[in-house]
């Protein structure tokens, strides 16, 4: 899709962006419902060559921001694509009302492009029907402005990285087993300014990655630990991003039971978020130092699978009793966190589709975060701005006793069913051991959506890509500001 400014040729569709107190088409009666946030209303041309008009509701003026604009772009793009139109334009009269100016701010150009690209995303790999053709051109303003092109490109890059994560999550488990996942990662980062290491088999044993070895023991596809090192600035703070990569989670010997377990393929959503964030940051050539660590396995039952009552011994000396094999994510994340510390990272964010309990606590639109005060506050602020919303939940020290085991240092599941997401975070904190500033993100409830709305399309959301990337970008900017202040002083 080409973002276009200044072209004179008439578009097939005119997009009207309408606040609930606005009226841009006086000849067209607009009800209050048509102006609600997310509303889409078509007025079709009466004859060949006459423009169709698409009304996109923005809701309350006082709540307007870039997230509302992203949603509007996603809704508009998908509606026009579904109708089979090739060209569209935003009514120039909207600009003054939206931005108090006759041109789009660069931030808005980026947000519109990002929302449009994500809203028109499709995962069509396994369908035999004809794929809908994308809209070829969208004109944002009548005046030609070359400075808008870089902003549009940033929006495309952000959407592409998020779409990469969506593609990985939506993929069938038969085509994205642990071995295939490793190969996909190699393909994504081929030719990039990164060092990529893959630990498998004997190398996992030598490094005592025993949680990963235990979880992956039931699958014919061997587990792996992938390490992606990026040094856009070798002197920057060393951040590790650890992403859970369970390519299919049947629960192991504690077998899951449901009518449709297809969504078990989404259990590598944390890994997908880390890969997407690294894809974006390396394309942007961010001045950062990041190690991405991705433990990958299947969790399936088999004669060789790990069992409840097994004890996993970690290289930091901790032993863990396996109470339930369906609490496998924390076992492999523990290996990832310990590996991050061995790599020298003193700033760690782990991200995972870890517990159903986080959804019971926060619903399906807001992920959970635990850990460092500054980092959690920063992530919450970023998520509110970019749409990857997140909320802090507590780490209650007294609850650690619920993770006790009669014959190991820890159990992998608490002794009561309450606060399961908090308990998983407490478990992971034991492996950080105060050696790094750390946050844990549980995105089990935000990894997918059941229907299309705004720029989120049925299936995987790509949650976490923009959250993690924007966290890094903000920290780079803060470090540069601090360095500049010291230099001036």
TrEMBL record:
<dbReference type="GO" id="GO:0070006">
    <property type="term" value="F:metalloaminopeptidase activity"/>
</dbReference>
<keyword id="KW-0031">Aminopeptidase</keyword>
<dbReference type="InterPro" id="IPR008283">
    <property type="entry name" value="Peptidase_M17_N"/>
</dbReference>
<comment type="similarity">
    <text>Belongs to the peptidase M17 family.</text>
</comment>
<dbReference type="InterPro" id="IPR011356">
    <property type="entry name" value="Leucine_aapep/pepB"/>
</dbReference>
<dbReference type="InterPro" id="IPR000819">
    <property type="entry name" value="Peptidase_M17_C"/>
</dbReference>
<dbReference type="Pfam" id="PF02789">
    <property type="entry name" value="Peptidase_M17_N"/>
</dbReference>
<dbReference type="GO" id="GO:0006508">
    <property type="term" value="P:proteolysis"/>
</dbReference>
<protein>
    <recommendedName>
        <fullName>Probable cytosol aminopeptidase</fullName>
    </recommendedName>
</protein>
<dbReference type="InterPro" id="IPR043472">
    <property type="entry name" value="Macro_dom-like"/>
</dbReference>
<dbReference type="GO" id="GO:0005737">
    <property type="term" value="C:cytoplasm"/>
</dbReference>
<keyword id="KW-0645">Protease</keyword>
<comment type="function">
    <text>Presumably involved in the processing and regular turnover of intracellular proteins. Catalyzes the removal of unsubstituted N-terminal amino acids from various peptides.</text>
</comment>
<dbReference type="GO" id="GO:0030145">
    <property type="term" value="F:manganese ion binding"/>
</dbReference>
<dbReference type="Pfam" id="PF00883">
    <property type="entry name" value="Peptidase_M17"/>
</dbReference>
<keyword id="KW-0378">Hydrolase</keyword>
<feature type="domain" description="Cytosol aminopeptidase">
    <location>
        <begin position="324"/>
        <end position="331"/>
    </location>
</feature>
């Amino acid at each position: 899709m080409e973002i276009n400014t200044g072209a004179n040729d008439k578009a097939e569709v005119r997009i009207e962006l309408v606040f609930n107190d606005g009226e841009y088409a006086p000849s067209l009666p607009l009800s209050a419902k048509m102006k609600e946030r997310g509303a889409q209303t078509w007025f079709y041309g009466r004859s060949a060559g006459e423009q169709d008009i698409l009304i996109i509701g923005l809701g309350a003026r006082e709540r307007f921001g870039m997230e509302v604009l992203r949603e509007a772009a996603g809704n508009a793009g998908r509606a026009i694509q579904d109708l089979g139109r090739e060209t569209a334009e935003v009514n120039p009269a909207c600009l003054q009302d939206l931005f108090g100016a006759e041109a789009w701010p660069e931030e808005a150009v980026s947000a519109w492009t990002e929302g449009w690209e994500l809203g028109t995303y499709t995962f069509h790999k396994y369908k035999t029907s004809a794929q809908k053709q994308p809209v070829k051109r969208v004109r944002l303003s009548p005046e030609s402005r070359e400075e808008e092109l870089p902003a549009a490109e940033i929006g495309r890059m952000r959407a592409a990285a998020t779409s990469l994560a969506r593609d990985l999550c939506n993929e069938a488990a038969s085509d994205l087993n642990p071995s295939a996942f490793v190969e996909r990662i190699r393909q994504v980062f081929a030719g990039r300014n990164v060092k990529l290491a893959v630990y498998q088999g004997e190398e996992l044993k030598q490094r005592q990655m025993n949680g990963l070895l235990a979880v992956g023991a039931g699958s014919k596809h061997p587990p792996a630990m992938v390490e992606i090192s990026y040094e856009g600035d070798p002197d920057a703070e060393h951040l590790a991003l650890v992403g859970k990569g369970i390519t299919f989670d049947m629960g192991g010997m504690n077998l899951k039971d449901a009518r449709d377990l297809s969504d078990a393929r989404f259990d590598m959503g944390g890994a997908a978020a880390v890969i997407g964030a690294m894809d974006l940051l390396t394309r942007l050539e961010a001045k950062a130092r990041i190690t991405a660590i991705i433990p990958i396995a299947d969790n399936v039952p088999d004669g060789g699978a790990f069992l409840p009552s097994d004890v996993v011994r970690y290289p930091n000396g901790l032993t863990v009793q396996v109470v339930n094999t369906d609490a496998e994510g924390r076992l492999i994340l523990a290996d990832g966190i310990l590996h991050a510390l061995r790599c020298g990272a003193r700033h760690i964010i782990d991200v995972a589709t870890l517990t159903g309990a986080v959804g019971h606590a926060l619903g399906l639109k807001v992920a959970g975060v635990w850990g460092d005060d500054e980092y959690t506050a920063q992530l919450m602020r970023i998520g509110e701005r970019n749409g990857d919303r997140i909320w802090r939940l507590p780490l209650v020290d007294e609850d650690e006793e619920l993770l006790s085991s009669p014959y190991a240092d820890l159990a992998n599941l608490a002794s009561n069913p309450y606060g399961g997401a908090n308990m998983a975070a407490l478990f992971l904190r034991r492996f950080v051991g105060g050696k790094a500033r750390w946050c844990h993100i549980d995105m089990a409830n935000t990894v997918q959506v059941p229907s299309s709305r705004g720029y989120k399309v049925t299936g995987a959301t790509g949650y976490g890509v923009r959250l993690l990337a924007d966290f890094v970008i903000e920290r780079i900017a803060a470090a540069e500001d601090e360095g500049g202040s010291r230099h001036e002083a």
